[in-house]
Amino acid sequence: MKRLTLFTASLLLTALTGCDDDVKVVEKDVVVTNTDVEIVEVPTPIIVEVAQGTNIQLGTRPDYLIEDMADSALKTQLESCKDGPFYKTDFSIGHRGAPMQYPEHTKESYIAAARMGAGIVECDVTFTNDKELVCRHSQCDLHTTTNILAIPELAAKCSVPFTPADSASGIAASAKCCTSDISLAEFLTLEGKMDGANTSATNVSDYMKGTPSWRTDLYATSGTLMTHKQSIALFKELGVKMTPELKSPQVSMPFNGMTQTQYAQKMLDEYTQMEVPAERVYPQSFNLADVQYWINTNPEFAAQSVYLDGRDSEAGFDPNNPDTWQPSMASLFNDGVKIIAPPIWVLLTIDNENNIVPSQYAIDAKAAGLNIITWSLERSGPLNNGGGYYYQSISDVIDNDGDMMTVVDVLAQDVGVMAIFSDWPATVSYYASCNKMPASI
């Protein structure tokens, strides 16, 4: 007979139970009469590392989209995941937070995105007249995204005051209010609202009621605006990574002595000041010169600097004809760009069997060694009429909301994108969790 101790086995049990403080390790002798060892193959479970304390809530929308899909192997697979587990993933990026239902770039929108499993959340960065950085999608969108026009003393500072509509002459209601029109202190007195304006309005109150019908004002009663630094502090608290976009100034630069490069550097400096590791930050810009500046002068941020590609707005652009987009993918990569981010439609096309497949743009980007992020899911409203701008290259095969999941699948599996911006991150988080993509850590 041999005596074996169970101490080692007990330690293993403790590790497998998550080192629970209530588990007690007890040494005990066991009498073993047969020491022959039989090796049995046991299937190894797939373990997804999920940060402690997460509370991921995806709601009913992913289920709705899946139920709306045509019968397919993909639909069956996605249906099998309805009970989770769901977790936070960097494949899911909160585009301005979760602005399909929450005012964009507000504290409430950011928190909603994190709760829906977005591993990365975006703050678009612009500046006030005292050169402080704040989160807004555009330097001059305060008239459509905040209540500034309802505050007479601040409305008076707008670059272009409110002008009512005149139906007789065909003049639409208009205004232009910029962050650079006001100070940081004044900016922080504003409240965020759903982006939109009623251009038929003859008064300010009606002008501010322009929310698209497929969004909602239910959560827009008190949107909390944020400075760039406040967003960093919140994102640290939420445990998410950060993707700030340096917005193109709509004022002449230098502005009050601040040059474009100083503006670009100031954005990165605030992460350093807030002690955020560079690997948790994905700085982005549509201005290639900004991206090249970061690559050349801030090497710690270089690998994650994102070139937002807006060349689709150029005349003659064709995602299946490399001659229509310059510089080439190889040139971008050779100049240090590691991540490129075009709109969804640029990455997709339709083959002869009416399948959605990668475009030549997508093929060339991957062949050059570029990683790809794309934008923006859940931003077009219902897809029963082809999906609008974001789906224009595949509109002939888009006719219901369930097609959104097919698009996500092609982007993930065939194009091989590293992440997707979404106005409702739960949709992308559901897909990523169902396909056991890496959890955000």
**From the helix content, strand content and strand pairing, which structural class follows?**
alpha/beta
Strand content range? 15-25%
Gap between N and C termini, in Å?
Answer: 49 Å
Question: What is the share of helical residues?
Answer: 25-40%
Return the average pLDDT rounded to an integer. Answer: 90
**What value does the Rg take, in angstroms?**
25 Å
Largest sheet: 9 strands, mixed
Query: Uncertain spans, ≥5 residues at pLDDT below 50?
Result: 1-53
Account of the protein in words:
With 441 residues, this protein is an alpha/beta fold. The radius of gyration is 25 Å and the shape is globular. Helix content is 28%, strand content 16%. It has 16 helices and 17 strands. Strands 3, 4, 5, 10, 11, 12, 13, 16 and 17 form a 9-stranded mixed sheet that branches. Strands 1-2 form a two-stranded antiparallel ribbon. α13 (329-334) links the parallel β12 (306-308) and β13. The protein has helices at residues 7-16, 61-67, 73-79, 107-115, 142-145, 152-155, 184-187, 204-207, 228-238, 260-273, 288-297, 299-302, 329-334, 360-367, 403-415, 426-434, and strands spanning 2-5, 29-32, 89-94, 118-127, 133-135, 160-163, 174-176, 191-192, 223-224, 241-246, 284-285, 306-308, 339-341, 348-350, 356-358, 371-377, 419-422.
Summary, kept brief:
With 441 residues, the protein is an alpha/beta fold. It has helices at 7-16, 61-67, 73-79, 107-115, 142-145, 152-155, 184-187, 204-207, 228-238, 260-273, 288-297, 299-302, 329-334, 360-367, 403-415, 426-434, and strands spanning 2-5, 29-32, 89-94, 118-127, 133-135, 160-163, 174-176, 191-192, 223-224, 241-246, 284-285, 306-308, 339-341, 348-350, 356-358, 371-377, 419-422.
